[in-house]
Amino acid sequence: MTAPMEPNSFRIGPDDEGMYGIFGGRFVAETLMPLILDLEKHWNAAKDEPAFRAELDHLGRHYTGRPSPLYFAERLTEHLGGAKIYFKREDLNHTGSHKINNCLGQILLAKRMGKTRIIAETGAGQHGVASATVAARFGLPCIVYMGATDVERQKPNVFRMNLLGAEVKPVSSGHGTLKDAMNEALRDWVTNVEDTYYLIGTAAGPHPYPELVRDLQSVIGTEAREQIQELEGRLPDAIVAAVGGGSNAIGLFHPFLDDRQVAIHGVEAGGHGLAGDEHCASMTAGRPGVLHGNRTYLLQNDDGQILDGHSVSAGLDYPGVGPEHSWLKDSGRVIYSPILDEEAIEAFQMTTRLEGIIPALESAHAIAHAIKLAPTMGRDQIMIVNFSGRGDKDVHTVGKMLGMEM
Amino acid sequence: MTTRIDRRFARLKEENRPALVTYFMGGDPDYETSLSIMKALPAAGSDVIELGMPFSDPMADGPAIQAAGLRALKSGQTLAKTLQMARDFREGDDDTPIVMMGYYNPIYIYGVERFLSDAKEAGIDGLIIVDLPPEMDQELCVPAIKAGLNFIRLATPTTDEERLPKVLENTSGFVYYVSMTGVTGSALPDTNNVSAAVSRIKEHTDLPICVGFGVKTARQAKAIGEAADGVVVGSAIVAAIAQCYDDNGKRIEDPAEAVATLVKGLADGVRSRQMA
Ligand SMILES: Cc1ncc(COP(=O)(O)O)c(C=O)c1O
User: Fold this and answer.
1) Given A121, A184, A343, A362, which residue is catalytic?
2) With contacts defined as CB-CB under 8 Å, which chain B residues touch A302?
3) Interface of A with B in 280-309 (CB under 8 A)
4) Residue A242, SS3?
C-alpha cells in the first residue's frame, strides 16, 4: 500500500462518506443503514447545539468529576531517570475509566432520538458498567453483551452491571471475547430497530460512530493540552495511550494531531508476542479488511477470516481497531507499538508500588511503553500517559498470574 | 445481456409459478458432502441456488447459519474452495443459477478483480453481499456489474419509500426482500405484511421479488409464494443438514437425501399455488 500524501491537517477526517482515506465507511446490512443515517443526522444536529453541549458539560463536571487531574508521577519519573511523566487521570472518573465520557454523550443522544432501550457490548466490562450507569441515571433498560470468557475474568464488573439494573448476556460464540459480543450486539440491533439505541463502546464500527465517540472522548486531550500548558508552560514532547478499539487513545491524541512537535504513541496488546497468533496487535501485525461496519487493520488469515487474538487485558482483546487509527498509522502521524502481557504486568506492579495507584491492565500497557520511552528522553522533556482506568477489576487476574493465594 | 438468473425467472413466468430459492453453506459439513447436497438441489425442485460463503463473523445470521459457517471453516473451506464447488457443480448443470451469498471481507482479501473473474469463470451468476449497502457500491457492486454478474440487493422493512430507489438502482437479477428486521432464521411475520411490502417494491421495479428470512415449512413457502415471485429458504435447510449428525459429529443420515426430501416438500408448497 502506498502511504497517503501528508495532509494539511490531521484533524479533518472523516469525509462525508465516513472515510478516513481508505479506512472507515459504512459496511452494514441494509436493515441498519437507515438507522446509522438517522444517527448521523441527529448527531450532526446535536453536537454543536449549545443546550446539548451545556448538559453534557454539566454532567461531565458534576456526575463524572471532570476535569480529571493531570498528575505528575514523580517517583516513577525519578525511578526511570528520563522524561517527566504525567498521568491523565481518567481512572478517577465516576465508574473508573474514560468510558463514561462516551456513554453520557450517547445516552443524551439516545434520549433526543426517542429511543427507549439501550444495548452495548463490553470487553473488560468498563464500558458495560458505564453504559449500565448512564442507563440507570436516565431510567432506560440496558442489555450488555459480554463474551463468556470475559464474564469469567471480569466478574466484579458483571456484579456491578447487575446491581445497576442491567442485564448481562454472556456470548459464547467464537472465543467469547469482545469481537463476539459486538457481533451479538449488532444482531440485537438488526432485530430491534424501532426502539433500540446501540451504545457502542469504542471509536470503531460504521460511520458515524468512530467520529462520534472520538468527539466525545476528545475532552481528554482538550483538557490535557490546557493542563500541561498551565503546569509546564508548553506542550508535551510525547503522549502515550493504549489502543483497544481506540477510544481513549483517539480522545487524547486528536487535539494534539496538528502539534507536529508532539510525538504520539499508540500501544497495542502484544500478548505472548507477535510471532504466533497470541496477541491483539492489529496494526503492527494485521492488514486492512472489513469487519463490524468499517474497513480497518484486522487480525485475519489469508482467507479473510478474522482471528481471535489474545491479551491478558480484556479491554484490548479485539482483533481490529478504530478506522482513524489505521489512517493515522498509514499517514505516519502516530507510531503504534506492541507491549507484551508480562511487560504490562510489570508496569502494573511498578505503578502500584511507586505511585500508589492501581492501573487497569489496559492502562498498564500504555505505562509499560512509557517506561521504555522515558529513559531515552531528556530530564527536561515531558510525556503524558493516558491513565484510562483503575485496576480494581484486574486485581484477581494479576494476583493469579503472580501466583498469589486468592 | 441476459444471465442464467434472467432466463430462469423468464421461464418461471411462462410456467406461471414462483421460484424456490435454496440457500446452503458451502463446505458444511465438509466439501464432498456439501457438493453432493448442491448437486441434489435442482432435481428436488430448487430453481435458484444460493451458495453460502462462510465467514468467521456473520453479523446478520442467526444460530443455524452461524454454526454452519463454523463447521465449514473447521473442515477447511475457503473462498477458493467455494468457487471450486461451483465449478464442480457446473460440470453437470449449466442451467441452474448460482448466487454466492456472504460477507465482504473474504472477497476483499481474495482481491475484487481476481474474485470477479474467477467467479465468472466458475459459473457464478450473481452475488448477495450482506454488508455492502448501496453507499458502498464502488467496492464490489459496480465492478461486478461490469464483469457481467448480477448484484442482488436486500430490501428490508427499514428501507423506506425514500430510500428504495437507491437500493434498487444497481440491483439486477432479482430483489431479495428480507421479510423482517432480524437475523436469518427468526420467526416469520404474517404474510399480509409481506404482500404489502412486495406491492410497494413492485411500484419501483420490474425485477422479480424473492422473499426470505424465516421460511421453514411447505405451508409458509406456499403462503409467501402467493405474494412474491420467489421464496428463499435457508436456515431450515442448514438445520436439516445439522440434524444428520449426532452430538459426536457422527453421521446418522445422508444429508443430501435429507435436504432433497425437505426441498421437495417446499417445492410442492411453492408450486401448489399457481400465480394469478
Ligand atoms: C480502562 C480501559 N482502558 C482502555 C480500554 C480500551 O478501549 P479503547 O481502546 O476504546 O480505549 C478499555 C476497554 O475496555 C478500558 O476499560
Assistant:
1) A121
2) 109
3) 289-293, 295, 298, 300, 302-306
4) strand
Catalytic residue check, B50: yes
- Smallest Cα distance from A28 to chain B, Å: 4
Enumerate the β-bridge partners of residue A339: A269
Distance (Å) from CA B226 to ligand 1 centroid: 52
* Integer Cα distance of A181 and A159 in angstroms: 18
pLDDT in tens, chain B (276 residues): 689 999 999 999 999 999 999 999 999 999 999 999 999 999 999 999 999 999 999 999 999 999 999 999 999 999 999 999 999 999 999 999 999 999 999 999 999 999 999 999 999 999 999 999 999 999 999 999 999 999 999 999 999 999 999 999 999 999 999 988 888 888 766 777 889 999 999 999 999 999 987 889 999 999 999 999 999 999 999 999 999 999 998 999 999 999 999 999 999 999 986 544
A25 lines ligand 1 (CB under 6 A): no
Q: Please tell me the pTM assigned to this model.
A: 0.96
Q: How much is the ipTM here?
A: 0.95
Identified catalytic residue from B28, B47, B50, B125: B50
Query: Are residues A303 and B183, on separate chains, in Cβ contact within 8 Å?
Result: no
